[in-house]
Amino acid sequence: MLILERQKSSQLLYYQALLRRIYEHDVEYEDFHKQLLSLEAGHSGEQRTDREFIDIALTHPHTLLYNLELLNAQGTSHQIDSILVTPNFLLILEIKNMNGTLFYNATHHEFGRIRHNGQVDIFSDPFAQSHRHQTVLERLLHHWGFMLPVMYVVVVANSNVRFDQSLQHYPILQLSGLRLYIERLFEKYSIEYVNTTELEKLSTYLLSTLHRPAVKRFVAPERLQKGVLCAKCQFTEVMVYVNRTWYCPKCGERNKKAVHQALHDYRLLISDRITNKEFRDFVGIESMQVASKILSRLGYEKIGDKRGRVYIISEDCL
To answer: What CATH number does residue 289 fall under?
Structure first.
């Protein structure tokens, strides 16, 4: 049973908004672009793994949670790609989408890839990261009174990959081996530690108590392009507000809802709260009255009155 559907992570959404707004001449533009491509590739690998779960068609009672984002007691964030919860065990899946030859140096926590052209790339240690997830979930389960074994595996959702001998004794496999891996886990952990009712209760705890998507903002607003940007022009042109609609001077596009994308970007990149003055400054409207009417039509939750009013930009503002 799927109880938390696959959504784009808050980090991926942030980078997508950032690349719409950061200027191409910005000193970090290329780095941001590379990071976005990596995140999009990772999301594609996660979707591929989701489809594999459908094909596996597990007959055991289970729940699946995708992109669980949580904070531990110290305020450190954990973004877990997938969690399989069964009466017998809980399995954390760290999903990678890469090709080439993968290798690992445990002494230095160095996880890398040798491309087909010989280029070497180094990535963050997925085993150390998964172990962090494992530790925090074990503590939480014990605190809630669940004694389920908690394990993790790194899944590579790309068939054009091979594993160096250095990875021989580590929990990593190609996506095609996931079915057999899970079957063997059920053979190894044959005891059911929770019943069906407790399984649903645990999954609800994980979702309602822990799932806290949070945007990490690290680029100052001064580096971002303001305005309602024209989607038809690939977000390169600023639209103007004319006769209750947004108009692109370059391509002639008219779109009454274009402001939704601008506020979506504002929410991700700057804040989920906006005043009339901040709205006017960001979208390029001079009239306080016109801005007030637009904000009112959007139907956002409001806090305060008159000049002190703040609008809460909703998650589903698009």
So the answer is: 1.10.10
Q: Degrees (nearest 5) of the Cα angle 274, 277, 281?
A: 95
For residue 228, list its beta bridge partners: 239
What is the residue type of 240? V
- The DSSP symbol for 250 reads T
180/263 same-domain check? no
How confident is residue 56, by pLDDT bands cut at 50, 70 and 90? Answer: confident
Give the number of C-alpha atoms closer than 13 A to the C-alpha of residue 24, restricted to the C-beta side. 2
175 and 262 both lie in a single domain: no
Q: Pull the structure tokens for residue 69.
A: 């984002």
Residue 56, Ramachandran bin (φ over 0: left; ψ between -120 and 50: alpha; else beta): alpha
Q: Minimum mean pLDDT among 122-131, 152-161, 244-253, 307-316: which range?
A: 307-316
Number of domains in the chain: 2
The one-letter amino acid code at 14 reads Y
Domain that holds residue 49: 2-210
Average the pLDDT over each of 21-25, 128-132, 166-170, 314-318 and give the range with the smallest value.
314-318
Report yes or no on 318 lying in a domain.
Answer: no
Give the 3-state secondary structure of 162-219.
Answer: EECHHHCCCCEEEHHHHHHHHHHHHHHCCCCCCCHHHHHHHHHHHHHHHCCCCCCCCC
